[in-house]
Write a structure and sequence with these properties.
alpha+beta, six-stranded mixed beta sheet, 6 strands, globular
């Protein structure tokens, strides 16, 4: 669990530039419980069996996808998401609007925005973009 928390923090600090250090610390407190509540948690490890990325899936919804900054851009996120689509029929997700790299990644993976909210699920002023894959 501690290593997954490190992956989460490393990823968030690299991609969620709109969050302050204090906000990241505050959110960090809730991550272990969130990880425990995820029905399907898929972890990617490096050659030393150390977690470097993970995703959480509930139903057909991608709840979370985090990759360590040092392996970002090397295809791990794509592999994780492709696995989620293939094995769990993942077809929707929410992404922070202020994280354009993630939005672009999900668009590249076939997702399209269908809804926007002004606040995140906790009521914080971070707009969310809801994305889904088109029905085939």
């Amino acid at each position: 669990m501690e290593q997954l928390l490190k992956v989460w923090e490393n990823s968030v600090k690299a991609t969620h530039l709109f969050l302050s250090e204090g906000e990241i610390e505050n959110i960090r407190k809730y991550v272990p419980q969130a990880l425990k509540e995820i029905p399907f948690l898929i972890v990617a490890e490096n050659e030393d069996q150390i977690p470097v990325g993970f995703m959480g899936i509930a139903g057909r919804h991608l709840e979370m996808l985090f990759v360590s900054d040092d392996v970002r851009g090397k295809g791990l996120g794509r592999k994780l998401l492709a696995y989620g689509i293939e094995k769990y029929a993942v077809n929707d997700l929410a992404v922070n609007e202020q994280n354009p790299l993630a939005k672009g990644f999900y668009e590249h993976m076939g997702f399209a925005v269908y809804k926007r909210t002004e606040c995140d699920e906790q009521g914080n002023p971070y707009p969310l973009l809801y994305m889904k894959r088109p029905s085939i």
